[in-house]
Amino acid sequence: MCGIVGYCGLKQASNILLEGLKRLEYRGYDSAGIGVGNDGKITIIKKKGKIKDLREIVPPDLRGFWGIGHTRWATHGEVNDINAHPHTDQTGKIAIVHNGIIENYMTLKEKLSSEGYNFITETDSEVIAHLIASYYDGELEKAVKKTVALLKGTYGIVCVHADEPGKLVGARNGSPLVLGIGEDEMFLASDVPAILAHTKQVVYIEDGEIVTVTPNSFNTTDHLERNILKTVDNVEWELEEIEKGGYTHFMEKEIHEQPESIMRAMRGRLDIELATGHLGGLNLSSKELLNIERVKIIAAGTSYHAGMVGSYLLESVARIPCTAELSSEVRYRNPIVEPKSLYFAVSQSGETADTLYAMRELQRKGATVLGICNVVGSTIARESDGGVYIHSGPEIAVASTKAFTSQLTVFYLFTLLMARMRHMSYGQGTEFARSLSKVPEQVKKVLDKKEEIKELAKKYSKAKDFLFLGRGINYPVALEGALKLKEISYVHAEGYSAAEIKHGPIALINEYTPSVFLVSDDSLRDKIISNLKEVKARKGKVIAVAVEGDEEVAEIVDDIITVPHTNELMYPFLMVVPLQLFAYYCALELGRNVDQPRNLAKSVTVE
Ligand code: F6R
Fold first, then answer.
1. 513 lines ligand 1 (CB under 6 A)
2. 28: confidence class by pLDDT, cuts 50, 70, 90
């Protein structure tokens, strides 16, 4: 959840560290700090607040060519200056930054305290600095190896020692760590965006590895001290993709990128001529695909909602029994792995701990788990048995938007592939493929409605509670609409199947609780209109997202946003966009920090 960055080279480290932290601020951001090495000492500057607050207290003349930085999302210990990283040992010569949770830190802390080590923070991370100090005899790398052998939990760590100028030592278990190779300079970071301005050459550090870095060299070993030969990868992302490019917020930019990002997810994969999908990364032959009798999808948050749409499609269109489940629940319920089942782990970041650990548990039981990820080289992408990249480009805003529609795209392609291998005719396949190919253009048309949606946000943003209601394939979209609104505007919102409200939630309806109904022109339209009337009859205000030309709905509801007509299966793409924009504009109306909502972080690497 936290972001880390380390630098050694020929430039002033403080600038590079602050700039790297700024780019990581979206990951975790209640406090930040840097430690810069120079002249036999490490100068630590850290502060509660944003990177700009930190920048203000970093002396312009702080010199030093190597150092570490951290942006914190608090887990152990309150948010204050002292608990911010880097943490040091008692001599102040060793400094560390840590991402993850040390589960056995209390035991280690008690032992170290009894040996005379003095703790000054409430964090779990501080034990790392003292442990390294307890083992240090002139070689940082050796002391780090002994230290990590005692740690239980998750960590991405970068450490420096004042007496070993220009050297960074990194270690990883469960929290991402990537090495960036520049010219006469090296970087260590939790995420590629922190170093993308300097290099595209990266080496992904794996769990259990320790890497020692100097400006011109790196060496990676495992816990048995064996050298590991690493491959250097080239990052595909461009620097512009991690900048706002004229938009006020990353979320706004990412919502608007969807016509292009959906197109990218289907490029080279949607075959209208043969009416099928090509997904090379699955690593499964046609025969193996044909033998699949059940599909199970695991994911968290927005990715889970995409998985729910996927499960609806696979079952109703490809006629393969399919379920989507929260990854956090899968891991601990001793799941049964059936031989002819195929699993998907869906994760934008590819680092979500709940999904990663559930995937590993399933793999231990013999499951084949494919990843649907955005971040290339992420842990889920690497550890899965195959998979598909969604190619959204970097998603920086905490609230996921374009990743959702790209994840959907992959599920539509997989459904088409599987359905065509079974009962779906060429004609039906062509209709499905054509409808899918039109989605990017139609999303553009929905984006053109943003002024109307902004007005709606002005009208409704003061409401304290919202209901989001949909049915069938749009039910997960209602859940997603509610999630978007609550996470960035902090307004309470519940997503339900519209049919379900009469079983309880209708008790919430009064003139102050607006309901957002998703009404497509599918076989459930009349039923959902009945649900809508039930709300109106109780004086509830109704906003409908409905299909262009639906006069009947327009007449009943208080406000309406229309989307173009499409094949009934394609509506999730078109219905989710107004909900994303609505959440965005409500958050603006309420003066929220849209890209960095309180308490949340991108990439949740703790359970
Ligand atoms: C919501 C959101 C989260 C993530 C969830 C899973 O806007 O961003 O709910 O969807 O934390 O993250 P990934 O997809 O990275 O596994």
1. no
2. low
